[in-house]
Specification:
- Strand 4, helix 2 and strand 5 form a beta-alpha-beta unit.
- By secondary structure, the protein is an alpha/beta fold.
- The C terminus is likely disordered.
- The protein starts with 26 loop residues before the first strand and ends in an 11-residue tail after the last helix.
- Helices cover 27% and strands 22% of the residues.
- The radius of gyration is 17 Å and the shape is globular.
- The longest helix has 15 residues.
Length: 160
């Protein structure tokens, strides 16, 4: 067994996340200035993204695809400078965009890697989660909400 000690460094450490079925706190710290956020859960569910400006896998074209097809209440916690956060807010005006710090989010919500997504039902229970790098992998992570609520738009909501 000792001759294979070197191999332990070749294995990828699994990304830890909050467990499916657990409730995600709707009130948590998002930066080092002790700024807190309060998530409001949507009636068809809520999608929560964690992204970073410096992450090469954080592809905002995937978020753009999502925004054209799905209408769940959506939050993006973004580790970036103020200007970048403002640019993303202008690109996605219906989303709640929050300038955040990944180190703080890791302590608060176990966000170890980005891009990460959580799909929450209307009471904040996690029904899907994980890292994603394509639109298809994003859909797989949030599929429990999509399977139940389709696009996430209620029938009485107007199309804008």
């Amino acid at each position: 067994m000792e001759e294979k000690q070197y191999m332990k460094f070749l294995k990828r450490r699994p990304i830890s996340q909050l467990p499916i079925g657990e409730r995600m706190s709707n009130d948590f710290l998002i930066d080092r200035t002790d700024k807190r956020v309060n998530i409001e859960y949507g009636s068809t569910g809520t999608i929560v993204f964690f992204m970073s400006k410096t992450c090469e896998k954080c592809d905002f074209t995937i978020i753009s695809q999502y925004s054209k097809i799905l209408y769940f209440k959506t939050y993006i916690f973004l580790d970036a400078d103020e200007q970048f956060v403002n640019d993303i807010q202008q690109q996605f005006p219906s989303f709640q965009i929050q300038k955040s710090n990944l180190t703080v989010l890791n302590k608060e919500l176990n966000v170890e890697a980005v891009p990460m997504v959580y799909a929450l039902n209307k009471v904040g229970q996690i029904v899907g989660a994980g890292i994603f790098n394509t639109y298809d992998s994003l859909l797989r992570k949030i599929s429990p909400l999509v399977e139940v609520f389709g696009t996430g738009r209620l029938s009485h909501e107007s199309i804008s």
